[in-house]
What does this fold into?
Amino acid sequence: MSDSEQPSDALVFFGATGDLAYKKIFPALQALVRDQGLDIPIIGIARQGWNADRLRDRMRDSLEHAGGVVEPAFSKLCANLRYIDGDYNDPTTFDRLHQALQGKQRPLHYLAIPPSLFPTVVQGLAKSGCADNARVVVEKPFGRDLASAQALNATLHEVFPERSVFRIDHFLGKEAVRNLLYFRFANTFLEPVWNRNFIDNVQVTMAEDFGVQGRGAFYDDVGAIRDVVQNHLLQVVALLAMDAPIGDDANAIQAEKLRLFRAMRPLQPENVVRGQFRGYRDEKGVRPDSQVETYAAMRLEIDTWRWAGVPFYIRAGKCLPLTATEVTVDLKCPPMAIFDDDVADAAAKAKDGKHRLLRSNYFRFRLGPDMVIATGARVKRPGEGMRGDDIELVARHQPSRGAPPYERLLGDALRGDSSLFTRDEAVEAAWRVVDPVLDLPGPIELYDRGSWGPDSATKVVEEGDGWHDPTPEATPQC
It folds into this structure.
């Protein structure tokens, strides 16, 4: 087994006293010790004037807020935890890290720090010898546009080969998102209809019923397109639209996703609507004249033989009626409506002629917070007439199980499994899609809290389509 295939024998995380470590990394580490027997040195680094005991206290507090301290995993984690207090600009910080790693051949470095610090830390690791045979995990955002993403990748590649770089996007670690890939390629009934001959349109909605939650300064430098569309939602589109990989290994899956990203047509301003909820500019840290979008709706085209002419509608927004991430795949209507009663009923509901006579069949994937896979169909209504009702057949409806995203992804990175991570070419290809519509000039369109965004979002979808608004999931009956 080569070094690149062997598990890491130490974990170093920069930014050990930060918010990400508190909310995500500490709970994931305890879970890895409990569930997978993780037993390696864990070294936290920060510049806070702390010591190892204070970091352990911080970790205990984190775990108590995240569900509780679990013994004996917590004691084992504490025994393996080390702390180095130092400035990232000071070479002696990395010299002390090198000493702490003595005897370890394959460390994993987790950069839970702002991207502006990446060059300093990466070069410090290289000069001290701590980057030899090492892996590195970096958090999103992977840049803020195509140029900065390319510069960030170049910085990482000065020291680490691409096979050793793990760009973490917790969304890809969610059970429901992983199930998209499985459901598509583990079932034969989808493939005959999963193309432009049968599918009319695809919709991806990521709705949140809350605002920026005290992160106004951060969000006002990012906006919805950078925050969730370029990464989370384009990744979902890739899983929906990619062709079958030649196997389940990371290289095969990543190759098909990259091909799909490259086929996405760059977005154009006329196919994008940007909105901002009323009251956003009153949030702490937000500029009083901010033109940053808290809502974005867009139409995406994919130039492949399978998808040519099929619109992919994407929208994401804050302060919407509920929190849900959902995909709807609308199939085309039957070529003829042969039941006169159905035709009469539908025509009465669509006198303006702008709506389809009957709702088509569809597939629906609820990706969060609940996990649902369902298909829509029509069945005859009881009685003498040949009238129908729309029903939904739920293929799966259960709470998400399995490891939480950060436990799964951190465990994969320690093992060197890059299947659920993004690669340099895919990151840059995704930025090419959204680059033309970043920082569009205002004025931004305002929308009310609790609404489904600006009224003009309807112009993104073709006449007769309409947005499918997620609704609260009903509790299944036994």
Remarks:
- The first strand starts at residue 10 and ends at 14.
